[in-house]
Amino acid sequence: MLGDIKGDGMADGSTLAQLHFxxxxxxxxVTEGLLLRGxxxxxxxRGALSGRKMLIIxxxxxxxxxxxxxxxxxxxxxxxxxxxxxxxxxxxxxxRFELQGLPGDSAKALIWRYVFAVHAARHIVAHAKGAHGxxxxxxxxxxGRFLKQNGESVDATPGGGRLGERLAQGARGLQTSFSLExxxxxxxxxxxxxxxxxxxxxxxxxxxxxxxxxAKAFADLGCDGDVHAPLLLMVDQLEQVWSAEPDSNSMxxxxxxxxxxxxxxxxxxxxxxxxxxxxxxxxxxxxxxDKFRGDELRITWTEHDLRTLALTxxxxxxxxxxxxxxxxxQLFPVTVRGEDTAxxxxxxxxxxxxxxxxxxxxxxxxxxxxxxxxRITEADVEQAGREFSAWKLTDLSAEYLVAHPFLKHLFLLxxxxxxxxTRTALAARxxxxxxxxxxxxxxxxHALTLTGIIDVLYEVGFLGVRRGNDVVFAGDxxxxxxxxxxxxxxxxxxxxxxxxxxxxDLRRYAPQFTDDRIASGNLTLAASGGTTLHRDDRLxxxxxxxxxxxxxxxGRAVHLTQDVSNEIEQRLLLVLxxxxxxxxGAARSMGVDVNEYLLATTHYFRALSEQxxxxxxxxxxxxxxxxxxxxxxxxLAGGSQGSSGDSLGP
Length: 650
Prior knowledge:
Elements: H1 13-18, H2 26-32, H3 43-50, E1 55-58, H4 64-73, E2 81-84, H5 88-95, H6 104-130, H7 138-149, H8 163-175, H9 187-190, H10 199-221, E3 231-235, H11 246-266, E4 270-277, H12 278-282, E5 296-298, H13 303-318, H14 324-331, E6 335-336, E7 339-340, H15 341-347, H16 353-369, H17 378-399, H18 407-411, E8 420-422, H19 423-440, H20 450-459, E9 463-467, E10 470-472, E11 487-490, H21 492-498, H22 515-520, H23 531-556, H24 562-580, H25 594-614, H26 621-640
Parallel strand pairs: 1-4, 1-5, 2-3, 3-4
Antiparallel strand pairs: 6-7, 8-11, 9-10, 9-11
Helix pairs in contact: 2-4, 3-4, 5-8, 6-7, 6-8, 6-10, 6-11, 7-10, 16-17, 17-21, 23-24, 23-26, 25-26
């Protein structure tokens, strides 16, 4: 039992003060957070550790760098680990690197192959001194001489700050010549077999000499994975130097081609792991893309996984055992807005660790830092949720700023509306804004169509699509939005920031009668035999029956999503409740003109019907019933004044 849980089942302030879910970024989380002790081994980690997968793909915040940092920290990996994280200088060198006679992808593959070969050579020279008893094999000596002759320090930190300089130097060498005398080759003479050779052909022959030297040293040392783990070369944070331009895509494609080539060349002596953001990887198009399918592993998180992660980190932070019940019913409130708290929290996050960590920490900050509470309250969760929602809306546009710079302008189409939106309603909103958005982003005009923006909003996780009785988001299902699909839902994560907290923006009903008004009035109930009052009561009963009739139709309307059905029902129940506040025979004494009251309510029915039709939320059954009941009530009201038709009579 957790020591800080009181006997009455309440968590005291010291427990909440200790509670923390870690840092949002893996780099800080590994040094001052909970990544190492609170790491949750997942499929991506297992696939990377086993060597089965080379490409770890995931959205921003999904845990790619966490896997990378964990692998860097694994004490059991005695084969050596190199992490390459390009900065802007390094990225610029690769993006602008060209070789006459080679397409951009192939040229950039050569510069990446050079980077891998140099890192492997430096590892081998250092590794031979330590793990292999100081053996000085000729092949190892040759690598040491090559590094010195080409300005590559053996003692430099792997993957360190000299990457930009190393790339610049490597680019010059590939475009002109390296010093290859360490391998018995005079670059300017032996490799220039023909004056007609292209720059690319000469660069390739030079690089092959270096790579063969590395492969031979690995083989001579016996570093084939049997004696110790292989060298692990990892590339992360490529998004820092990527743009949606062709040369950036070539940079990434070149990396993929280089890693594939090097993995085959060095065999079990070296392994390669590339951590790529999903939007970058999915934007690539190249002929050999199908050859990487078996190397891919996409990071996905279920609610169960995220609950486990949250509990694991909570346990580490408080320093003792913590049960799920203690976390979710004692430190957190039992429910939020009538929903199980954990379910509410995870439903309002995108399914990735960073979002969960941010939201849960925000709840703790709201309760303990701002209000010095001993436990998190429902109000704390709701306030943290509003702040978190604003963060995430901003973060989403920043995440896709390169690929979809117009994204934040699309969010305006959903402000202060219902979170359920149909294709029809979205078409009307977009039509009004399309010209200005296209004028601001002319390069993206081809994508700024109704179909285009729906695809983008679904792809980034902002909109889900209704399929049957479920609403699915891009991370839940691989199928893109289909042309026949017409109903979309804003993800719960973004609703508070947009002011879209109800299912629809149906006109609200303003009740005319309250218990307070009735309690404070002097009601004089007339005799039941009064003709006018008898007719008023029957009109009000007819209005109540109309409400029940429409409610019944809503219950049978299987085409309506549950959230929309609930909201229509809430509106109608307000009307019904208002009618029920008029006691029999009391309308006149309350100053109610029943005819006018009935006509005002029919106007409301027709307004609801029109909103359902214009918004595309209803295919006809509920809207039709509202219209039918409105017409019937108007006829009845007219009949009470002496007209023919559905007269109530005396």
